[in-house]
Design a protein that fits this description.
The complex is a heterodimer of chains A (about 280) and B (about 425).
Chain A (H helix, E strand, L loop, with lengths): L3 E2 L32 E7 L17 E5 L4 E6 L5 H8 L7 E6 L2 E2 L5 H10 L1 E4 L11 H6 L9 H14 L15 H13 L5 E5 L7 H16 L3 E5 L3 H6 L2 E5 L20 E4 L8
Parallel strand pairs in A: 4-9, 4-10, 7-8, 8-9, 10-11
Antiparallel strand pairs in A: 1-3, 2-3, 2-5, 5-6
Chain B lengths: L12 H14 L1 H38 L4 E6 L15 H6 L4 E9 L7 E3 L14 E2 L3 E4 L1 H6 L2 E6 L4 H5 L4 E5 H7 L9 E4 L2 E12 L9 E4 H8 L11 E6 L4 H12 L7 E5 L4 H40 L1 H9 L4 H38 L10 H25 L2 H6 L5
Parallel strand pairs in B: 5-10, 7-9
Antiparallel strand pairs in B: 1-11, 1-12, 2-5, 2-11, 3-4, 3-8, 6-9, 7-10, 8-9
Helix pairs in contact in B: 1-11, 2-9, 2-11, 2-12, 9-12, 11-12
Classes of the chains: A alpha/beta (about 280), B alpha+beta (about 425).
Chain lengths: ~280, ~425
């Protein structure tokens, strides 16, 4: 567990960021099992569209490590920065300050080619609003990420059908997305996120707007992926999702230790941590 | 440092085109608006170029009507030899053989020591010709070829021909302006006029002569008859034999250059040739100005079209920014997004270009039909114009493509419309 508060001035002298001398090592990111999948060092989240004004500069700095195969839930009040954090973690946005290491690689130094490659091949997104193209079929929507992987259409269709099958939506492949129910939309979004077999799955309220049964199914699918060794970060208020997670990070609240979770869910240690305003200082 | 992070994402060209087609089918209204922009731009371009070609044809035709067709050949006074008739006997045949010559003939004015009196009745001693006599009226000796070369139009009766010429028949033509005062209003009774005391039967009344308008006030005799009645032509200025040649429009210049050699290869310099100045320079200037004006119009139309399409494409791509942001989130690179936008706008431009070329041709044909012109469309402009449609689309898509490619994905996703 390594969520901590860093003053706006930067890292304290007694605990410098663990950057090796001579910069980051050259490596293929999947080589190192010991390297955290996600590592934030003094990251400040970006604000609003355009260049932020000085008075809008976020004052909190985030430090976070998520190990390989962890299932972490992210909670917090609205406007606590959950979506902004997911955007940074998903390489959709760059941090205003600090360093974000993904599988040990400093993503802040990467150009469009590498960031796009990581997004397309190693990160899966489940957006809160599902974000499916309304005039395309379910199959087309699920195939969309594969369009940038170099697979031929026939191969894409096979992989996409398999992904749809996993969430129980194979029968609806030919339907247009506007013909789906809210539950089916959520499942379709999950199928699209899984289709590239990402090692990191970022989910923003994956069960929002779904019924109990579908929510359970979605959590079941995510838990299954977790068991397969994928790293999953879920921003949610869903207690069921929180129950399955290794730990919970709450944004905007002081760090709190929770009692040990009931046995049987996962073997991981369960913590709840918080990120507070930098001016308040570490607890 | 070139690290292997992950295999870069790619977009196959076939996928880019397929995506463009799918997007066009999915949003036909927006696509139609952009295509119509390209259609109008290309149609305007084709129509203007087609109309300028058509109008040019008409201008050329109109100017051709005004090109000189008459060549006058005479003998230079200083080189006039002693023989009174300085041309070879077959001079008309020689000139006729030149390319572009329609007719050629010899003529001269009868020039006696005293002015000839033309009258409609036999002269009486002391009162030649009575009251209807005209003294000093021009009397012309001419070959039948001259009548053709001067475009003499005989309103009543007929002109004289080779038979009259060969037999030195005492016949003549009278110009309408001279016939009236002489009282010759019809040739039904084969009227006779008198040149001094020599009778000539009037075979026709000349109503007009485009090449020599003065002939309507003259008496015209066959040249052989003139030789018999009045002797060979005189040597005074204005009475020397001359040649009149009628050519096809535009051929007068070359005929003028060749004619002296056709008459006499030994002494071509003995002959003076004159051709009325034609409107060639004016035609060139008018045509050049018209062409420049229309070509500028065509390009202005095209530029306006490109701006229009660029605006529409910009609007369309701004509307689809969330979709592009989603694609970026799913692995598309900036260049892939740019390729999507450019492919789509190029495809729409191509469709618009095809339709525009057809519409442009239709406009040219309809306008030409309405004005009674011959439609002229240069085929070489059609395919380039169609391809230009795709070019217009691509060009118009550059700015939207850059905007879409460089937008922050997180901002685009925040605007994604709910399903």
């Amino acid at each position: 567990m390594s969520v901590r508060v860093v003053p706006a001035g930067g890292w304290p002298d007694d605990d410098p960021p663990p950057v090796p001398p001579g910069g980051l090592p050259d490596r293929i990111i999947s080589d190192r099992q010991s390297t955290p999948v996600i590592e934030l060092r003094g990251v400040r989240l970006p604000v609003g569209p355009g260049r932020p004004r000085p008075d809008q500069e976020p004052r909190t700095s985030l430090d976070l490590k998520v190990g390989r195969g962890e299932l972490v839930t992210l909670t917090g009040q609205p406007r606590s920065g959950r979506s902004a954090l997911l955007n940074v973690l998903g390489l959709l946005d760059r941090p205003a300050a600090g360093t974000y290491l993904l599988n040990g690689v400093d993503t802040t130094r990467l150009g469009d080619r590498d960031r796009s490659a990581l997004r397309g091949r190693q990160i899966g997104f489940v957006f809160q609003r599902k974000m499916l193209l309304p005039t395309r079929s379910v199959l087309d929507n699920v195939m969309l990420p594969l369009r940038y992987t170099g697979l031929r259409r026939r191969q894409r269709a096979v992989v996409a059908r398999s992904s749809l099958d996993r969430v129980g939506l194979a029968a609806s492949a030919a339907l247009l997305t506007w013909q789906l129910s809210a539950d089916e939309l959520a499942l379709c979004a999950i199928a699209r996120a899984l289709v590239t077999q990402p090692s990191l799955l970022l989910c923003d309220e994956p069960t929002a707007g779904t019924g109990q049964a579908t929510a359970a199914m979605i959590i079941g699918v995510l838990a299954g992926l977790h068991r397969e060794g994928r790293t999953i970060l879920i921003a949610t208020a869903d207690q069921l999702a929180a129950a399955y997670s290794s730990r919970t990070i709450e944004l905007g609240q002081p760090e709190t230790s929770l009692p040990a979770r009931p046995p049987g869910l996962t073997s991981a240690t369960r913590d709840t941590a918080a990120i507070t305003d930098a001016q308040a200082g570490p607890p | 440092m070139n690290r292997v992070i992950a295999r870069p994402t790619t977009l196959r060209p076939s996928d880019a085109i397929g995506e463009a087609v799918t997007s066009i089918i999915a949003a036909p209204l927006g696509a139609t608006a952009i295509s119509v922009g390209a259609l109008l731009a290309v149609a305007w371009f084709i129509a203007v170029l087609g109309l300028v070609s058509t109008a040019s044809g008409e201008v050329v035709s109109a100017f051709a009507q005004r090109l000189p067709t008459a060549v006058a050949i005479s003998v230079r006074p200083s080189s006039l030899p002693d023989p009174p008739f300085p041309y070879p006997a077959d001079v008309a045949t020689r000139i006729d053989a030149l390319p572009g010559v329609l007719a050629a003939g010899v003529w001269w004015r009868i020039d006696l020591a005293h002015p000839l009196t033309v009258s409609a009745s036999p002269p009486v001693t002391g009162q030649p010709g009575g009251r209807a006599a005209r003294t000093g009226a021009p009397v012309i000796a001419a070959t039948p070829g001259f009548l053709l070369a001067a475009s003499v139009r005989v309103g009543q009766g007929r002109g004289f021909g080779n038979w009259d010429q060969a037999h030195a028949a005492q016949v003549c033509l009278v110009g309408s302006a001279l016939a009236r005062p002489l009282g010759v209003t019809t040739i039904a009774g084969q009227p006779t006029i008198y040149l001094d005391d020599m009778a000539c039967t009037v075979t026709g009344i000349v109503t007009s002569a485009r090449g020599r308008p003065a002939l309507t006030r003259s008496v015209i005799l066959p040249s052989q008859t003139a030789l018999v009645l009045f002797g060979p032509p005189g040597g005074r200025a204005g009475a020397r034999p001359a040649l009149l040649v009628r050519t096809r429009p535009g051929a007068a210049g070359s005929v003028a250059r060749l004619a002296p050699y056709a008459i006499s290869q030994a002494r071509p310099q003995a002959f003076a040739v004159s051709v009325r100045a034609g409107p060639a320079l004016l035609r060139h200037q008018v045509f050049g100005a018209l062409h420049r004006l229309f070509v500028i119009l065509a390009w202005v139309g095209l530029a306006v079209g490109i701006l229009g399409i660029a605006g529409l494409t910009l609007f369309s791509s701004a509307r689809r920014m969330p979709e592009y942001a989603l694609r970026r989130a799913l692995g598309a690179r900036r260049r892939h997004i740019a390729a999507h936008v450019l492919c789509e706008s190029a495809l729409l431009g191509l469709i618009g270009g095809l339709a525009g070329a057809s519409l442009g041709i239709a406009v040219v044909v309809l306008v030409a039909l309405a004005l009674g012109w011959t439609p002229v469309v240069v085929p070489a402009t059609l395919w380039p114009a169609t391809v230009a449609g795709a070019g217009i689309g691509t060009l118009a898509g550059v700015m939207p493509a850059l905007r879409a490619a460089y937008a922050r994905p997180a901002h685009g996703l925040a605007k994604f419309p709910p399903l």
